[in-house]
Every structure is written in structure tokens, then in C-alpha cells.
Specification:
heterodimer; A: 113 residues; mainly beta; seven-stranded mixed β-sheet; four-stranded antiparallel β-sheet; 11 strands; B: 115 residues; six-stranded mixed β-sheet; globular
């Protein structure tokens, strides 16, 4: 299965600022997925990042708040913009991985103060 | 409304005994179910899956049972080991019907296996 490097692993940010999270995959993949896990909640899909086209956002998530880049088939970034304390979550990227469903990065634990 | 529910936020089991983690779903279009295990500061890792055409899938100490009529699945770990202590997520997808098969996750159950 694919190996994903995600960074930063954690950050503490001031409200109103933005944070960009990076994911690097060790193989070429068509789609990359970005998830959020708020405290005590399930993993929720934010958007699907496709190379060469705009990301597809799930209901409740918008591009202005979570802009995504996908410059090539092994890399993607998610930016959390104009952060507020409600954005404090774990953010994870993932890719489809054969018969195992999905492989996840190690996650970014974001705290907004 | 949650489509995948794990109603037990935590479970404590003695080492060597059986751990049973439960999961319920509401969407009858789901046809593939997965269990993921997550340690602190790590991403979820795949554990075991089951297709809706089966009612049981076994992999070593881990067995997943699916009851489609009840829209219920369970993960059995036997014997439980302290290293199994982690958060377990149930996930479901609807792979057929041309969908992307995006995973819908439950909130997770934190399993503690005590020596």
C-alpha cells in the first residue's frame, strides 16, 4: 500500500491566520482525500483533490475556507484559512489503497487559540 | 443524521478475553464495510473489511460479522492483547451504483486491554 508523509504533525495557531498542510505520497495516485476529525467526532470528508482539476468539496465545506492544491499526482496541500477555535481538529489526508480501502497520513493536530 | 454509529465510546477488556466492538448503519446502499485502528499521533490503519455478500470475514485474531437485516456489524478480537489498545473506527461505503465509494466513519470506540 502507499506511504503518505504528512506535515506538520501539529501546530498551534492564532485565530485569523492560515495554515497549510502538506501530503506527499510515494506513488502516483489519481485522487487524494482530505478528512477532518473534530474532538469526539468521526472522520468527515472535506474534499477530494483531483490532479488537473478543481477539488470537489463535500456539503458544509467551501473552497474559500479550505483551498486545496494538487500540482501533481504525488502531492497535495490543504489550507485552513482565517482560522477560529472551531477549526481545532485533526486533519488527515488519504489515498485509495487496493483492497485495503484507504491509507491515511499520520494527521495534523491543529489547535487555534 | 449519522449514517454509521458506534454507540460505545469506550470498552475495557481483560487481556486474553474477547473484545467485541459494535457498529450500526442506516444507509441500505452501503455494500462494503471496514474497520480501522488508530493509535495516538498516528493516522488510522486498515484492519479488516467485509463485503455485503458475506456475513463473516476472519483474519487471525480479528473477525468481522455482518448482519445485513439488522444493519449491524461487529468486530471480535480474541484473544485480546494490550497492544490492541487503540481507537477503532467502523467505516462504510457504497461502492456500487457509480459512486466514488467515499468512506463514512463512525465516531470510534476506544478499546483498553488491561494486563
Amino acid at each position: 500500500s502507499a506511504v503518505i508523509s504528512q506535515k506538520p504533525s501539529r501546530d498551534i495557531c492564532q485565530r485569523g491566520t492560515s495554515l497549510t498542510i502538506q501530503c506527499q505520497v510515494d506513488s502516483q495516485v489519481t485522487m487524494m482525500f482530505w478528512y477532518r476529525q473534530q474532538p469526539g467526532q468521526s472522520l468527515t470528508l472535506i474534499a477530494t483533490a483531483n490532479q488537473g482539476s478543481e477539488a470537489t468539496y463535500e456539503s458544509g465545506f467551501v473552497i474559500d475556507k479550505f483551498p486545496i492544491s494538487r500540482p501533481n499526482l504525488t502531492f497535495s496541500t490543504l489550507t485552513v484559512s482565517n482560522m477560529s477555535p472551531e477549526d481545532s481538529s485533526i486533519y488527515l489526508c488519504s489515498v485509495r489503497s487496493g483492497t485495503y480501502g484507504y491509507t491515511f497520513g499520520s494527521g495534523t493536530r491543529l489547535t487555534v487559540v | 443524521d449519522q449514517q454509521v454509529k458506534q454507540n460505545s465510546p469506550s470498552l475495557s477488556v481483560q487481556e486474553g478475553r474477547i473484545s467485541i466492538l459494535n457498529c450500526d448503519y442506516t444507509n441500505s446502499m452501503f455494500d462494503y464495510f471496514l474497520w480501522y485502528k488508530k493509535y495516538p499521533a498516528e493516522g488510522p490503519t486498515f484492519l479488516i473489511s467485509i463485503s455485503s455478500i458475506k456475513d463473516k470475514n476472519e483474519d487471525g485474531r480479528f473477525t468481522v460479522f455482518l448482519n445485513k437485516s439488522a444493519k449491524h456489524l461487529s468486530l471480535h478480537i480474541v484473544p485480546s492483547q494490550p497492544g490492541d489498545s487503540a481507537v477503532y473506527f467502523c467505516a462504510a461505503s457504497a461502492r456500487s451504483g457509480g459512486s466514488q465509494g467515499n468512506l463514512i466513519f463512525g465516531k470510534g470506540t476506544k478499546l483498553s486491554v488491561k494486563p
